[in-house]
Amino acid sequence: MVQHLVDLLDAWLPSYQEDWVVAVLTQVQGSSYRKPGAIMLFHPMGKSLGMLSGGCLEADLRRHAQRAIQTQQVIQLTYDATDESDTSYQLGCGGIVNIMMVSVNKANNYLSLLHVHDALMRGDSGIYQLDIVDDGVSSNKISGLFIEHPNDSATPITLNTKTIKVTEQGKTLLQIPLRPPVHIGIFGGGLDAQPVALMAQTMGWKVSVFDERTAYARSYDFPGCQIIKQPTANVTNHLLSDLDAAFLMSHNLQIDAKTLKVLQTQPLAYISLLGPVHRRDKVLAMADLRLDDFSGYFSAPAGLALGGELPGSIALSVLSQCHGVLYGSQLTSLDSVML
User: Fold this and answer.
1) For residue 338, which of 29, 43, 191, 220 sits 20 to 30 Å off, Cα-Cα?
2) How many CB atoms lie within 10 A of CB 320?
């Protein structure tokens, strides 16, 4: 499972030389809250970063993290929720999870997590490879390695690429696919775009807001977002090609048409256009485009049929649909409701 580590590693970096412990979910049998490859970090003063469960295991993991620091040995843990009579952790998910805890230090090169952070910040994808060893092995003997993935590879790393275990030269390795956080572009910086930006950022997504109009897309209305104040046609191809999804929210027919004409040439997984079917058809005609001209998922009317009409509801609707597209889920479109 591809996961976003940038925020977690950002918080870890200022004190990375202290006695942190990394906890990695290495195997799951049955169901679990997180999937193999999920990572969490523990500090000796009780601070933790990330999550491996819905709160069921973290307190116990914190206790084991202290032991990992004291012994400087790998700790292998198994939590079994298949026995409903066992009330130890009340996991509720009914699965078995295996977690490896390792002290992160200079001797094991901080498990290459510094390299991982640098690569993700550059926008690179890759495979994070971590040794899987027996309980009690010295933490100093564990190694991590980030293997960068070519951008032009025939098998790109996607959001639903799965973590796998492999055996090479007698060693068991966990291979965790990593890619930069989802990057969305919001084209139109009005009031209704603000909750889209806010919700996307709470999911760890990167947000860029595009609007050439003076009174829109003001930086204080979109904290944490990259603001681009120029027509879409003038935006660099490098920035547009970095986007995973685009949301057209200018409420201006001509601007939407010009934007859609540019975005149609980009390999976007998802594009949404606000408004009913007759507005969509006007925008397409002005842009000299057809519905089948888009290589990705073109949602117009935008979003899922969740009900509601205020900006927060619209944001939830379009982001839910976009999330489903990016992660390969089945979707129910608004088309059948509004046609």
Assistant:
1) 191
2) 16
